[in-house]
Amino acid sequence: MRSISTNIFPSFFQSNNIPFSPLHNLHHFRSIAKVRLKWVKNRSMDHITDTQTDLKAACLIKDAIARSSTAYLTSKSLLDSQKLLGLTVPTLRFVRRYPTLFEEFAHPKYPSLPCFKLTQLGQRMHDWEIRVFNESEDDIVERLCRLLMMTRNKMLPLQAIHPLKWDLGLPDDFDRNLVRKFPDHFRVFKGTNGSNSLKLVHWPEEYSVSMLQKMNEKGIGGSIVDTSSDAVSGYGNYKRGKAALEFSMSFPRGYGAQKRVKAWMDEFQKLPYISPYEDSRAIDPNSELMEKRVVGVLHEFLWLTIYKKTKRNYLRSLREELNLPHKFTRIFTRYPGIFYLTLKCKTTTVVLREGYRRGRLVDPHPLTRLRDKLQYVMRTGLIYRNKAVDILTSLDHSFDNNVANYTKEEDIDEEDMEVTDECCDSEEEIGSEKD
Fold first, then answer.
1. Which residue in 172, 94, 111 sits closest to 140, CA to CA?
2. How confident is the model at residue 385 (pLDDT cuts 50, 70, 90)?
3. Mean pLDDT in residue range 71-90
4. Nearest-CA neighbor of 366 among 147, 135, 40?
5. Are the C-beta atoms of residues 355 and 300 closer than 8 Å to each other?
6. Which of 16, 138, 239, 379 is most solvent-facing, going by the fewest CB within 10 Å?
7. Mean pLDDT along residues 13-30
8. Domain extents in the chain
9. How buried is residue 237: exposed, middle or buried, by Cβ count under 10 Å (0-12/13-18/19+)?
């Protein structure tokens, strides 16, 4: 049985070349009651974001050293990188914290200029990471294809994708090697503004089923929307419950007991689900249908990330390409059962709740497992500074037993939630925080 994505909407080539959409002039016929929700602190997810900040910065520095022609970086080149790396301490102080990865030495020509290269252990870990990338190549191609498939023109500027490399699990040289190895999937071309963009060459139909559709496949059975012209001519012709795929929700403490909130969520879940891979430009931007579509896009995007989270600013940079409303970030606080916002490390990060259970990833990616081992190595400190071979030999055996000492699991500790009858007409307090 064909999914919604292949029934309701035109295909990729039709949506780009033929001005037709079966969702033309869809409007909402009744408003869903909304309540105003106060942001609830989740210490477990805050801790995850906090501990991974140093790990990400170390990986970025490691990659920069690895691609350097000299195989080292000078202290001068690292001075202005603190903000770029998302650090709360000066970069040089940060690098010196981890002698297991970075070795300091004097510049060959200028002895007073400190330089940093990868230690033997750091180089081994980097080689290990390259091997994981090679073994996960098909998965990387799929993630990148899905990202481009969700955009309006099936392309994105490379400058918008590069900040997402860490979150999407892309190799450092994806824009060169992947394009060369998969010319039938990707092509790089120069846009009108002079910047390079990555474009999807063809539409892989097997990727057009969203994660929510996959998870609900057994549950929804034959509940497919009728695609006849009479059935799709207006929003009122969508019957409640038809293809109304439900999002998994993990309610904060005290949330589920609120009758108004429960009624709101029940109405929301009954709305038809619009796949993020469908052309949505004809949907009324102020309709409830569009709101569920926006939730679906954000849900799918976060599923594409290997940590099921990303910075809010990264999503803002993709707003137009993903056809998101101007104030789409209010969705994160409006649906706290699906998303969580953390303000750790002087930025705002959005987390997909269903991706975690008791502070750990539900379905860890091979790259996240390797990065957990790298984080363990970072935290071992000076004890293994000159014992790279020994730690690599015992790493697989000791990691699973000892990593819990370094990645502390905390039970969810949440404050009470305020619930009122008001609808959120403006950005929530957390939504207006500066990144």
1. 172
2. low
3. 91
4. 135
5. no
6. 138
7. 40
8. 4-42+208-356+414-432, 44-119, 131-200
9. middle
User: Any idea what DSSP says for residue 283?
Assistant: B
Q: How many CB atoms lie within 10 A of CB 132?
A: 16
Question: How many alpha carbons fall within 13 Å on the CB side of residue 205?
Answer: 8
Fill in the DSSP letter of residue 245: P
- Beta strands 155-157 and 186-190 are unpaired
Second-level CATH architecture of 131-200: 2-Layer Sandwich (3.30)
CATH class of the domain whose range is 44-119: mainly alpha
Q: Show the tokens assigned to 85.
A: 């790396």
Closest by CA position to 281, among listed 150, 147, 156, 152 = 152
**Torsion angle defined by CA atoms of residues 12, 14, 20 and 26, in that order, rounded to the nearest 10 degrees:** -10
Q: What is the three-class DSSP state of 419?
A: strand
Report, as an integer, the average pLDDT of 116-140: 93
Counted residue by residue, the chain has a size of 435
Higher-confidence residue of 224 and 396: namely 396
Query: Which residue bears the tokens 């390797």?
Result: 370
User: Which residue type does 193 have?
Assistant: N
Kindly list the strands in the beta sheet with 349-352, ordered across the sheet, starting from the edge strand earlier in the chain.
309-311, 349-352, 339-342
